[in-house]
Every structure is written in C-alpha cells, then in structure tokens.
Amino acid sequence: MSQFPVALPSKESHFMTLSQEGPLFILHLHHKDNRFNTEFCLSILKALQIVEDYFLASEEIGDMALVTVGNDKIYSNGLDLMHALSYTPFMDVYLTLLKRLVTFCIPTVAALNGHAFAGGCMLAFAHDYRVMRSDRGYLCMNEVDLPSPLHPGMAGILRHKTTPKTYRDMVLQGHRFTAQQALDQEIVDIICPGDQVLDQAKQLALKWAPKAKSGIVYKQLKDEMYTDIVRLLCIPFHRLAPKM
C-alpha cells in the first residue's frame, strides 16, 4: 500500500502529487501548464491505479472519492502538440487515460482552478462532477482553430455530457465558456471564487463519496452508462490518421 503523499512519476521528476485526506484522494497537477505528454498521462494512470488498489484492498468499502486540481491559473492547457505529433503511440495513451477516468471505480470531481483547454477540457469532462473558478479561466475545445479533428471517443464524451447547442458551440465555434456560461449550460455543477474552488470540490466529493460503498457496482453502472463512449475510445488513433 502506498504511503501518502506520493510524488509522480517520481520524486526526481515531480509532475503531480497524490495525497489522501480522510475518504478523499487529491491529485494535484503542478507541472508548468499541465500539458499532456506520454509521461504525464502515464503518471495520472499510475495515480488512478494507486487509488483503485486502495479501493480493492479495503476489507469494508467506505466513503471514497477522487478530486483533481491544477496549479495557479491553469487546470490544463491540453496536449503537448509537438510530442503528440512526434510520438505516434501518444494519442492511444491519452485515450486510455480518458477511458480509465470516465469509468473510474469511485466518484470523481474536477476542481477547475483556471483554464481548461482542449485536452485539459476533455480531462475535466471525463470526471463525474466539475467545480469551476468564477473569477478567471475558460472551458474551451479549440480544435477548430488549431485546426485538428476530434477522435470519435472524445467527441462521444462531449456529445453525452452537453446539449446539442452547447456541443455545436464548443466544437464548431471553439467557444470559450466562462464559469457562468458553463453553469448555465449545465456543464459544470458549481462555480465559486478561485480561493474556494478546491474546498468546494472537496465538499462536493464528500457529498457523493458514500456512493463508493456500492463497491464494484459503481464502476459497472458507469460502464453501462458510457458503453458507447468506451467503444469509441477503444478505436486506435492510427486508424483515423489520413492517408498521405
């Protein structure tokens, strides 16, 4: 069993910290602007595995939930594009992360302390609940402006968790949603000033942490709820790459 806090991927290369506060696990992402490369994704996957191992090892499953939070004014600015373009297997690692999180075995809350763009926005949507900073930051899928296509699994997450109008504005316009707009469109659950985001996320996590007592059933319900998303996320990225 891991001793908390855990530096990931290692103490020498410290991108994020996994800590435990009673029934809550807090994953603090603090590597520059939290752009996703392979090592960053694998570090989050390792954190999820540590939490799941703790969950499975519990003799009697009690309240449990996971909160993720970024650093300073940024939750995550998305993919490290140079890495994504130069390392072919990367996108499949990123898709595995989304699949793992969207069907995770306990309740999950994203504490959006600042900007969540593109891949960072997708990470937020892969959580069960979202708390967003009201005084700074946007939720945005800006692929149309890069330009870059959306993998079917990523599009599936957005389709499932937004209305048709919000989905249109997010994908075809690259609209930058303020916290109030995100709340009005029901893509976040709570908005609050930046200095309250983590505390509000913890309170929301504590509210739903008792649902983890259902054990493996909680994940089974997610597997069924998101069966189409999981199927789409399993499509290898290289199959979608345009033929030159």
TrEMBL record:
Q: Which CDD domains does the record cross-reference, listed alphabetically?
A: crotonase-like
Q: Disulfide bond: is it a keyword of this entry?
A: no
Biological processes, Gene Ontology terms: fatty acid beta-oxidation
- InterPro entries in the cross-refs: ClpP/crotonase-like_dom_sf, Enoyl-CoA_hydra/iso
- Provide the reaction this enzyme catalyses: a (3Z)-enoyl-CoA = a 4-saturated (2E)-enoyl-CoA; a (3E)-enoyl-CoA = a 4-saturated (2E)-enoyl-CoA
Q: Which GO terms describe its molecular function?
A: delta(3)-delta(2)-enoyl-CoA isomerase activity
Q: Which SUPFAM superfamilies match?
A: ClpP/crotonase
Q: Name one GO cellular component term.
A: peroxisome
Q: Which UniProt keywords apply?
A: Lipid metabolism
* Protein name per its UniProtKB record: Uncharacterized protein
